[in-house]
Write the C-alpha cells for this entry.
Amino acid sequence: MQNFEFVKPSSVAEAVAALTAEGAQALSGGQTLTPTMKQRLATPDVLVSLTGIAEMKGVKVNGGVLWVGAATPHAVVAREAAAAFPGLAALAGGIGDAAVRNRGTIGGSIANNDPAACYPSAVLGSGATVITNTRRIAADDYFTGMFSTALDEGEIVTAVEFPIPKRSAYAKFNQPASRFALTGAFVTQAADGSVRVAITGASNNGVFRWTEAEAALAGNFSASALAGLTVDSTDMISDLHGTAAYRANLVKVMTGRAVSAA
C-alpha cells in the first residue's frame, strides 16, 4: 500500500471540497477500498473519510419513508430499521460477518455497486431515492451497470430514502467463501398492490429488475405465480461458482423464497 494523505471532514461541504484535490477518493466503510489498496489496484493520493460526518448517519422514519444516512453501518440499519422495514433490516443483518457489518456502510455499497452486493437489490427493489450532495436520483436511474452508477465525478451519496412497503423480504444464496450473493432477490409489495423484484449476483450487467415476475406477482402474490416463468441466461454471470444457467435458475428460486418469506 502506497503513502497517502488522510482527511476526515466533519460536514458534507468539507468532504466535497476535499474531493477536489488531485488523486482524492472518498472512503466510507472501506470494506472494498481498503483491500483493493492493499493489492495496489487502487492508489489514491488522498483518502477523504466520510465516517465523521454526523449528517450522513442514522435511521429515521418520516411518514411512509425510511431515511438512512449513507455513512450508517449495516449493523445499525439491521437494528434500527427492523420495526419499520423488516425486509431491509434482515438484508443488512445478513451482509458479510460481524466485522463487515460494523464497518461497512450503505453509501459505500451502492456507490461501489458490486454486482454481487446485497444493498443494490434493496434500493432498486424498493424504488428508493438516492440522495447526493447535489441531487436526488431514482433507483431506476441510479444503477447503470456492473460497478457503474449515475454518480458524477466528485459527487457523493449522502442518504437513501426508502418508501416503506406493505411487505418485503430478501433471499440470497450465499457464495460460501465471500458471503456475497451468488444470487439474491429483494421483493416488495406496496400498499396499492404493485410489486418490485430486484436481482443481485446473477447478471453481467449488475443489479436488475425482473419485470416478468413483478407482473405475475401483482396479480397473485405467492411463489406459485412464478411457476410458468423462465429466466433468460444469456447475460448471466458464469464462473467457477456457478454457470449462467445455474444462476438463471437461482433467480427464480430465490424470488420464490423471498415472496414466501414476505
